[in-house]
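Human: We require from you a protein record containing the residue sequence and its fold in token form, and nothing else.

Assistant:
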Amino acid sequence: MSTKESERQFPKSKGVVMTTTGGSISVVPANEASWEDLEAVLGAARCHSGRCYCQRYKIPVSKWNQIDDDERAFLLRAETNCGNPEAGTTSGLLAYLDDEPVGWCAIEPRIAYKKLSSSRVPWAGRNEDKQDEGVWAITCFLIRNGYRRRGITYELTRAAVEFARKRGARAVEGYPMITVPDKEITWGELHVGSRNAFAAAGFREVTRPTERRVVMRLDLE
């Protein structure tokens, strides 16, 4: 049996968190999904002069252009352990609408995103230990074309909280955009998520470092 065929064996019915008129949304840790399914969601998404593969907060700017798309994909595949449900570690979540892979959420301990420690957004107006291993961060969402505006980001946010809680997180943070009704925001800007999705999952606003960006946090203790 080929690797691709064996990866497709994993059921997608686990972790159903919402049923809509268009079907059931389920969310699973990335290692319980196949790499083929994650690639289907990531699609042609591009960031920083290439396909990001959620390495934006990990690779220094000075080295970004020295690492090609295939290498970034290799890094993400190693981080997620896609296709290996018995893996001891994984990062991120994959959402399905029925059996179709439709959404991705990047979540790990905050210290895994090395560039966050030097970014202004998380720390403006705050005095906190940047190396606190108990704080996790949600840094990215990606929803496939044709499946947006169905509440998938909301379900991924809720699932991310439980994912982090079960792995010992004391708190979860996000750095979303403020959205305004009837005002369009490009999907590239909204990859960090919307404030509304975090608020619906119980997060509170900590700071507002820019006019459109907020730091949201949920303490789990």
